[in-house]
Amino acid sequence: MALTRFTIVAAVLSAWADQSTAISSACAPRFTWEDAQLTDSIASSNASLFGFDSNSTTAKISPKCKVFPGDAAWPSQLVWNLFNVTLGGALIKTVPLAAPCYNNWPQHDAAQCQYVTNNWADPHLHVSDPTSAQFPLYQGRTCMPTDNPNDNCTLGGYASYSVAVTKVSQIQLALNLARNTNIRLVVRNTGHDFADKSIGAGALSVWTHKLKDIQFISNYGCKGFQGPAFKIGSGVETEDLYRAAEQNSVTVVGGECRTVGIAGGYIAGGGHSPMSSLVGMGADQVLSMDVVLPSGRYVTVSEDSYPDLFWALRGGGGSTYGVVTSVTVRAYPKIPVTTMTFGFATSSNVTADTFWAGIGKYMSYFDTFTAAGAYGYFLTVGIGPGQFFFQFMPMWGNNMTKPQFTTLVTPFLNDLASLGIAVTPNITEYPSFYSAYTGTFPPEQVGNTNSHAASRLFPKENFQGTKLNQTLAAVRYAIEGGGVLIGYNIRSAPNPTVNQANSVNPAWRKTTGFFILGASWAANATDAEIAQVSETMTTDWMAKWRAVSPGAGSYMSEGDINEPNFQQSFYGDYYPKLLALKKLYDPTGLFYAPTAVGSEDWYITDQEAWIPTQNGRLCRK
Ligand SMILES: Cc1cc2nc3c(=O)[nH]c(=O)nc-3n(C[C@H](O)[C@H](O)[C@H](O)COP(=O)(O)OP(=O)(O)OC[C@H]3O[C@@H](n4cnc5c(N)ncnc54)[C@H](O)[C@@H]3O)c2cc1C
Ligand SMILES: *[C@@H]1O[C@H](CO)[C@@H](O)[C@H](O)[C@H]1NC(C)=O
Ligand SMILES: *[C@@H]1O[C@H](CO)[C@@H](O)[C@H](O)[C@H]1NC(C)=O
Ligand SMILES: *[C@@H]1O[C@H](CO)[C@@H](O)[C@H](O)[C@H]1NC(C)=O
Ligand SMILES: *[C@@H]1O[C@H](CO)[C@@H](O)[C@H](O)[C@H]1NC(C)=O
Ligand SMILES: *[C@@H]1O[C@H](CO)[C@@H](O)[C@H](O)[C@H]1NC(C)=O
Ligand SMILES: *[C@@H]1O[C@H](CO)[C@@H](O)[C@H](O)[C@H]1NC(C)=O
Ligand SMILES: *[C@@H]1O[C@H](CO)[C@@H](O)[C@H](O)[C@H]1NC(C)=O
Ligand SMILES: *[C@@H]1O[C@H](CO)[C@@H](O)[C@H](O)[C@H]1NC(C)=O
Ligand SMILES: *[C@@H]1O[C@H](CO)[C@@H](O)[C@H](O)[C@H]1NC(C)=O
Questions:
Q1: From ligand 9's centre to the CA of 386, what distance in Å?
Q2: Along the chain (621 residues), what's the average pLDDT of each consecutive run of 10 residues?
Q3: Rounded to 5 degrees, what angle do the CA atoms 422, 426, 427 make?
């Protein structure tokens, strides 16, 4: 009976919730689904569940821990049903992607298990799932693909419920419900985050993947900026936006991975790009954003609307100040791009010391190359005792013809030749960013749980004078220890045509070398073995990188979940201001993610040292 009544009430509410209370932003109109907002009258019709934040609810939220499944205070089935109907049926009870491999799930299905197993390394498989993490180490590895159906699969660190959002009212309902019932909230877009910041046991997940609109604005013509721009929903992935830019003969700033979400974690974290050496960071390109705040209210954030949040949402990290529903970013005219690929390795002609001298030569050009607007993406790895391998994947010359690029790199190639390192560079000119991107960037592989990363943003001083040798020695130490270097020769170019007064880690503004260090272990490693490798990386290898670059930082979106003093490393001097804004806009602590601003006030129960999974309860310290 009760269920029926709730269902009818909720169906009516659901219809109301779709009514528009549109406020178009001045320069780029809201998408239709952004006009479907939660009204006060609907929210207050069951305020204990769906009411917006007010000072009275703030006072009410005092429990030490978030409510967890099985607790008496966990919302009843009736509440979940009411919520689902109010959402218009968008609630998903989450199921791990690999559940079909296990007898202990009703989804068990050998053919589907085979499909998931075969495609596990393809990011697209995980992106289109409401909960899956692309690197499930901190999910607890509780439901990996297996050929033993008698193993146990559990939800582990995955959220309990996910809302497949297609309109703003659903985000508002989810935020209000999570806050009012004191359950954990997570925001998930593509699940790419290295530290699994998009998952959490016992959480309600806001899944933004379906917000796929891309609108090209040929002449934005608003305030400081006159020119081409895109307004995109927060589910838009890099490859979607790159394709749209190509179709409209413009260039946009995005990352290197095809499936990362532009308006989600990428811009929130700062966002580095092959274009960064020419025009700055991804976050610098933002003209306006639309955001559901922790209060449940929906606002436009720009230079003159919530300017404090406009600063914080461009660099201060995802899942902290609200859920971004769309962003408007500027675009640039079409440019030619010239790329270069080659590799070299130790051999009978190239000793280990010569190899590292070659790497040092490359580093000595970091400032020259980035000042010319170029970018380099490269791999350096050990391939046996005293043996090493280097590969460009590729080096990238923005807005350069082949002759211009060749002139830039010839002194470097001559230096390698005089060291006796023979290389055969493939230098290719492309007519556009997109053609260069599809022509040279390898597709990514995900899904593994046998590696873990840390990173450092090295300023240009590290690659000059006597510091260059010290930097080289610190890098070599980590690679000799078994680490893998994914290197970027990149700068955040100063760009007076965009607003760079944002919270991007100030270390980015000095960087010419962004180095990701990967540590790995056997696929069957025990927790103790994983913990040991992770500890070695953080406290030994990375300690040397930190020592040689005092006061620099690390990139939060490709960083170490165990980073010591993460506040300084990931946010630099901006941390106190970011924290004050966090407390102002999210006084109840609705948003949490590991290493996010304010996360030091919380802990997750049942964590093991060096393997901080999201499988326990979220509690206040
Ligand atoms: C293979 C690979 C290559 C990469 N290459 C680059 C690169 O070239 N340049 C670069 O800068 N980064 C790169 N990254 C890092 C990438 O930017 C981050 O992992 C980023 O956080 C992914 O964002 P997402 O929204 O796609 O993923 P998610 O994991 O879903 O989200 C990441 C974080 O953002 C939050 N979030 C997501 N959407 C929203 C939203 N709408 N509102 C508020 N919070 C939100 C999530 O809660 C989470 O905390 C790469 C990562 C991988 C795995
Ligand atoms: C609101 O929801 C709560 C929890 O299910 C329920 O007890 C209450 O009766 C509802 N109120 C209204 C007005 O529907
Ligand atoms: C909440 O309380 C603060 C301080 O007591 C006050 O300044 C603010 O106006 C109140 N907000 C609302 C929405 O009542
Ligand atoms: C929510 O409702 C939809 C549509 O009725 C249904 O398909 C889905 O299974 C429901 N979700 C949950 C968690 O019950
Ligand atoms: C699965 O879990 C059950 C109950 O916790 C336990 O009895 C069983 O041994 C587990 N099986 C495996 C293969 O771990
Ligand atoms: C080493 O140098 C010799 C002579 O220059 C050359 O013939 C040979 O191919 C080189 N070997 C490698 C592995 O580069
Ligand atoms: C590319 O270079 C041309 C001149 O060669 C310049 O006019 C143009 O502004 C550059 N484009 C960008 C995006 O920097
Ligand atoms: C150089 O690279 C381009 C683009 O990847 C490729 O098409 C071409 O075959 C390469 N040329 C040589 C000689 O390897
Ligand atoms: C760096 O090391 C190399 C080889 O070890 C040495 O030849 C060179 O002089 C050193 N450079 C500086 C600036 O110390
Ligand atoms: C992992 O597998 C290797 C061989 O494949 C074996 O030697 C090792 O003992 C295994 N380790 C564990 C913890 O099972």
A1: 20
A2: 41 42 57 94 90 70 89 97 96 98 97 98 96 95 96 97 98 97 97 95 98 94 87 97 98 95 97 98 97 97 96 98 98 98 97 98 98 98 96 97 98 98 98 97 90 97 97 98 97 97 98 98 94 98 98 97 98 98 95 98 96 97 94
A3: 120
Contact 467, 526 (CB under 8 A): no
Angle made by CA atoms 615, 193, 614, in degrees to the nearest 5: 10
Alpha carbon nearest to ligand 1 atom 7, residue: 255
**Alpha carbon distance 327, 301 (integer Å):** 9
- d(Cα 309, Cα 293) in Å, to the nearest integer? 10
Best CA proximity match to 455, nearest among 482, 473, 478, 472: 478
CA of 255 relative to ligand 9 center, distance in Å: 35
CATH number for the domain whose boundaries are 337-573: 3.40.462.20
In a 13 Å sphere around the CA of 113, the CA atoms on its Cβ side amount to 19
- For the chain, which residues make up each domain, given as ranges? 5-24+211-333, 40-207, 337-573
215: nearest Cα among 29, 459, 23, 359: 29
Pocket test for ligand 2, best of 48, 50, 78, 182 (most atoms within 8 A of CB): 48
- φ, ψ at 396 (rounded to 5°): -135, 120
In testing the pocket of ligand 7, which one of 250, 284, 285, 399 has its CB within 8 Å of the most ligand atoms? 399
Phi, psi torsion values for 266, nearest 5 degrees: -65, -60
Same fold flag, 5-24+211-333 and 337-573: no
Atom index in ligand 2 nearest the CA of residue 82 equals 5
The torsion of the CA quartet 43, 48, 50, 51, rounded to 10 degrees, works out to 50
Q: Compute the radius of gyration of the chain from its Cα atoms.
A: 24
What distance in Å separates the CA atoms of residue 508 and residue 314, rounded to the nearest whole number? 13
Instruction: Tell me if 103 CB under 6 Å of ligand 5.
Output: no
Q: Which CATH architecture has domain 5-24+211-333?
A: 2-Layer Sandwich (3.30)
Question: Is there an atom of ligand 1 within 6 Å of 90 CB?
Answer: no
- Looking at ligand 10, which atom is closest to the CA of residue 529? 13
Residue carrying structure tokens 């939220």: 61
